[in-house]
Amino acid sequence: MVINVGEFVGGKAKSFANSPHGFPASIALSQGGLARFRVFNRQAVAIADPDLARQVLIQKVSAFQRGRPARVLKLTIGEGLITTDGELWEPARQWMEPAFRRDNIISALPGIAAVIEQELNNWEQISAANGQQIELLPLLQTLIAKLSSQTLFNLKWDDETLGSFVHNIDSSLNHMARLLRRPWITPSWVPGSLTSQLRKTGQELDEILGPSLEGPATGVHGEHLLHLLASADSSEGGCPLSSRRRLNEIKTLAAAAFETSTTTLSWTIDLIARHPEIGEALRDEIDKVVGKAAPDARQLSRLSQCQQTLMESMRLWPAVYNLVREANRKVELGEHTLPMGTITIVSIYGLHRNPALWQQPDQFRPERFADHSVSHPGFIPFAIGPHTCIGKHYAILQMQCLLAMLLQRFVLSPVDGHLPKPVAKVTLRPLTSPRLFLRPRHGN
Ligand code: HEM
Fold first, then answer.
1. In this structure, which residue's CA is closest to atom 17 in ligand 1?
2. Among 198, 213, 314, 422, who pairs with 75 as Cys (CB 3.0-4.6 Å)?
3. Which residue ranges in the chain fall short of pLDDT 50?
């Protein structure tokens, strides 16, 4: 027998680090929905079965706590919704949740549409100056940063501040991804270490986002989310959060919104460009339901093919591909017993590609969602349970609005024939930015 020394020492740490999205999905799917493996001295399980996922995320949620990614993210963000559990998490979630309900979020739509309109004017000029080509990812990063700053945080940044925000978020995510591939964490007092760099980007984000706590109640575009949070504050007898914690929550929202939305939109827009028949059907639907004006919330909710396309893109390329937890006690999951401390990975990527749940799971077929517009047990791009994405309605609203306004104005096609390769960093994103032709439609 040949002993693989690397595997003897590290378990499956290397396979996991090489493909953090593909490895847990493939072993879980090859072993009936749950597979055990070892990462150095820790036991781990990967799950791609909807019932077991529900047990971890809903029925037995108190038996699990956040895992290592949250501890690493905490270096930049501090204690916030996405890095805490239990009593550090619950009061903040309760306080913030009302502002994120769909009926509150739709008041931000006119502001969202105004930012998108301005940015699409830029996209048109850029494509006209470059043989009708655009580099999608950087344009989406600028758009999402502007949307967050103006419609969530009431901040109007100059180009330098916007560039610094994008740079800081981007570099902290890169540092995080590198740190998560290592079994050890160098203390942050070691100069130049990844941890010290993560803390530094956190301080720079404090400076960029701090002014949003001091702004007026009405935003750059009328209602904005902090205003809604402020009204929750006064109507319910005072905010339970310290000003430090409020700033952490603003950083949390900024970081959570930025990378997930840019990644999801870049996959979705690229997929539409590569499927001209789908692009045409979407343009027809948008012309019929919305016409040429900016869409309102009622019209967006009637764009069923647009919704199906977005869902199918999130199924194939879920921005958040793993939910990582640790068992805080011994816990039974179906017929499996997980010892305390087990690293528990719910593979969203695996669930979304599980052939027992989806026909031809690797194919892009938006119409599969025509029968599952409400819910499908194997589709959880925003997670499920108490830690479900708080920004889900905002994310969907801004993404649908962008798709509608983009396709009102342009016909998209890919510059080259190669599908973008995925790379799993903190999110599952295209390895290189998609390059597209953006041709203005006649009559616009
Ligand atoms: C396409 C866009 C998005 C996707 C796919 C997405 C996905 C997710 C997922 C899967 C989680 C659960 C993470 C976990 O429990 O480990 C999550 C949590 C969270 N998301 Fe999102 N998200 C998106 C956009 C947003 C936006 C726009 C915001 C803010 C405006 C946001 C704020 C948050 C926050 C604060 C949490 C932590 C919730 C909690 O634990 O209480 N997300 N998101």
1. 389
2. 198
3. 1-3, 217-222, 444
Note the pLDDT of residue 434: 94
Q: Indicate which residue's Cα is closest to atom 1 of ligand 1.
A: 261
CA–CA separation, 272 vs 438, rounded Å?
A: 12
> Residue 144, CB half-sphere, CA atoms under 13 Å: how many?
29
Contact 264, 403 (CB under 8 A): no
- CA of 261 from ligand 1 middle (Å) equals 10
Pair 195, 187: CB distance under 8 Å: yes
Q: What is the pLDDT of residue 220?
A: 47
Question: What is the best residue among 101, 140, 389 to mutate for testing ligand 1's pocket, by most ligand atoms within 8 Å of CB?
Answer: 389
CATH code, 147: 1.10.630.10
Per-residue pLDDT tens digits for 250-278: 999 999 999 999 999 999 999 999 999 99
Residue nearest atom 18 in ligand 1 by C-alpha distance: 389
Greatest CA separation for the chain: 71
Task: Determine the Cα–Cα distance for residues 401 and 300; give it in Å rounded to an integer.
Answer: 7
Predicted local confidence at residue 231, as pLDDT: 59
Angle between helices 109-129 and 136-147 (to 10 degrees): 150
- Residue 25, ligand 1, Cβ within 6 A: no
Domain count, the chain: 1
Distance CA 86, CA 96 (A): 15
The range of the structural domain enclosing residue 427 comes to 5-440
Ligand 1 proximity of 252 Cβ (cutoff 6 Å): yes
Query: 61 in ligand 1 pocket by Cβ < 6 Å?
Result: no
Q: What is the pLDDT of residue 302?
A: 95
CA 193 to ligand 1 center in whole angstroms: 28
Position 3 scores a pLDDT of 47
CA distance linking residue 376 with residue 246, whole number of Å? 35
pLDDT tens figures, 285-343: 999 999 999 999 999 999 999 999 999 999 999 999 999 999 999 999 999 999 999 99
Q: By alpha-carbon position, which residue is closest to atom 41 of ligand 1?
A: 387
